Amino acid sequence: MIKNFFLKHGLDLDNLDLEAILASFSMDMTAGLRGEPSSLAMIPSYLSCDVKIPINKPVIVIDAGGTNLRVCTVTFDENGAPKVDHFSKHPMPGTDKEVSGDEFFSLLASYVSPLLPFAENIGFCFSYPCEITPDCDGRLIHWSKQIKAPEVEGKLVGSELSKRLSPLGFKGKITVLNDTVATLIAGVSQGLKKNYSNYVGVILGTGTNTATVIDNCKILKAPSLGSGSMIINMETGNFARLPLSDIDEELHAGTMDPGRYKFEKQISGGYLGQLGLTALKIAAREGLFSNEAQKAILALSTLENKDFDDFCDAPYVNGPLNNLPLTDEDRRAIQEIGRTIYARAAKLSAANIAAGIIASGGGTDPLSPVCVNIDGSTYYKTKTAEFMSRTLEALRSLLEKRNLYYRTICIPDSPVIGAAVAGITR
Ligand code: BGC
User: Which pLDDT score, from 0 to 100, does residue 12 have?
Assistant: First the structure.
């Protein structure tokens, strides 16, 4: 019954053609690198994998993610091990209520200023689409993850912060980098002794994205880069050449940026709960639940990803869905809807990761695999549909037949570590 429901609405797992999606990824990657219209911005980071970490030199790190904003100092010891001090965590400005540009940067400066006595430079991990300047400042193209601070769009976030910190004595450099770029660099910093042929950084948390390394000669939109290679933020969350079901369309219509970030809205933690609720409501309108459950589901206004995942995993444990008047048949139906949505997200995530590995051109020799550092709670914590193992299974089936070799690794706090390495080495 639920299978027919998804077939009817165009969310059909059996017909999800990952090879076709990878081919579209490849076309959009090439167009993005040429500066032609593309859903993949392929943003040069002006950072490379050539990393040497100074020992015992502290750096301030700002990690502006989808939900939290963390600040701390990081110092690396003689073994390359990071030590985090002066850590504090704040809500990301603009998540709950709208803030002005000035409020945004003043709040940021107020979180960072207590750390100024401890280090000279700042590594600023900014997990949003930013055009990076050759001196590693970042101009916010537009917000993703439903952040409400419209005046920040178009601004150079490093310069704006620097303006507010200079009167407090700050004279150092601010290096702005994407969280996937930071995650990739964290992989480099921990893999210096391994024989990796290349590196990829992946985030699957509130949002999703991949960074890879591309030869400068292929970055045709930036012709004066010279020889070598550069880390590229692919901005895969905005990938748009994939089938959308009418359930996806209904979710998009209710977001602040309906035409954008279609891929992210299918696979990341910031949206999967609400996507689930959208599917549940459509199913309720079509009479797939008992009368009582139907009324209760239609009255729900939000559903967090964690609550949807928890219910699908353990449908009798207390939570917003379990508190509804459900029969066992209702529970089975909700669970199956959840399994389908999370299984699709896992498969699409595999395509996302594979696209980054293929684009890197590495991994053709089993002696030198590509190091794929993956970060993000959605990837590691989602229980439904055996999310992580399903992602890895789909990734293997895409890459084994191409004879590509890779290692997936997990380094706790990768965005912080990578931003520290980038901030300290400039
Ligand atoms: C942002 C990316 C970021 C990703 C993961 C997306 O919403 O646009 O820049 O890398 O989330 O945090």
Answer: 87
**Distance between CA atoms of 73 and 79, rounded to whole angstroms?**
18
Structure tokens at 396: 């293997």
Span from the CA of 209 to the centroid of ligand 1 (angstroms): 5
Taking CA atoms only, the protein residue closest to ligand 1 atom 3 is: 127
pTM of the model: 0.97
Q: Which ligand 1 atom is at minimum distance from the Cα of 128?
A: 9
Which residues are near ligand 1 (CB < 6 Å)?
A: 66, 127-129, 144-145, 178-180, 203, 205, 207-209, 235, 237, 264
User: Distance between CA atoms of 272 and 378, rounded to whole angstroms?
Assistant: 9
pLDDT tens-digit map of 337-359: 999 999 999 999 999 999 999 99
Q: Which of 146, 204, 183 is nearest to 348 (CA)?
A: 204
Does residue 376 sit in helix, strand or coil? coil
The pLDDT tens digits for 51-90 are: 888 899 999 999 999 889 999 999 999 988 999 999 999 9
